[in-house]
Write a structure and sequence with these properties.
Layout: H1 6-28, H2 31-38, H3 52-63, H4 83-93, H5 98-105, H6 112-141, H7 145-172, H8 182-197, H9 211-226
Helix pairs in contact: 1-2, 1-3, 1-6, 3-4, 4-7, 5-6, 6-7, 6-8, 6-9, 7-8, 8-9
Length: about 230
């Protein structure tokens, strides 16, 4: 039987850990269970990671395209307490959202319908692509106060604020429907996208919907809710 390369083993371990941390949270995840999902013995996990903290850090280095093409020295050492949170924050901040950024900088859109669609589709793509790692962050934040603070207190709030500012600016200019509270409107848009691009995949009826039909319907639904009807 051919020997599995260490890089592939490390990748399998990270994938299994992502699933378990995203399902059970930090405290609820056991190294033995991760090993079982990865198809390893409990003891062999420590050939690759020194500790549970190192395994948690591995989840994010793999998700964000690190450590690169070269296999790091094994077992991976335990990071400093703040190192993993700093890694998460830096990489979440670097996730590009060029359509929303361009829209908030442009006071006179050439086509607000196309502009709004591009913003919704952009957010949907981000949530659909990153949902496994976002699930880890949300499930584990309750066990890691520093992570909860930066994710719920800054990252999510920051996006809601930017989207709310865009909606309010376009509404005041007559492009979009006015709303009683633009932060609430931004939250409704974002949570609708999150549920269909991400949370429905964790449910028992995840396969009940066609992915492409879901995406198109979400985009059409939100646009219809926000765009002023044409005369």
């Amino acid at each position: 039987m051919p020997r599995i390369p260490a890089a592939d083993r490390l990748s399998a371990l990270a994938k299994a850990a992502t699933s378990e941390f995203g399902r059970l949270g930090y405290r609820g995840t056991r190294m033995a269970d991760v090993a079982s999902v990865a198809g390893m013995s409990s003891g062999s996990v420590f050939t690759y990671v020194e500790s549970k903290e190192a395994l948690f850090h591995l989840v994010f280095t793999q998700a964000f395209g690190m450590p690169g093409h070269e296999l790091p020295k094994l077992p991976l050492s335990t990071p400093a307490p703040e190192e993993t949170v700093s890694l998460i924050v830096a990489n979440l901040r670097s996730v590009p959202a060029p359509h929303l950024s361009a829209a908030t900088a442009d006071e006179c859109p050439e086509n607000v319908d196309r502009e709004l669609r591009s913003i919704i589709e952009e957010r949907y793509e981000i949530q659909e692509r990153l949902w496994p790692i976002l699930a880890v962050i949300e499930r584990c934040a309750v066990d890691i106060p520093e992570l909860e603070d930066v994710y719920y207190g800054h990252t999510r709030v920051g996006y809601f604020g930017r989207l709310a500012a865009y909606l309010e600016g376009r509404a005041e200019a007559g492009y979009l429907r006015p709303m009683p509270d633009y932060l609430v409107a931004a939250r409704i848009v974002s949570e609708t996208i999150s549920w269909f691009a991400w949370h429905r995949r964790e449910g028992r009826d995840a396969q009940s919907y066609d992915d492409e039909s879901v995406r198109r319907t979400v985009v059409e639904f939100i646009c219809a809710a926000l765009l002023e009807p044409r005369a």
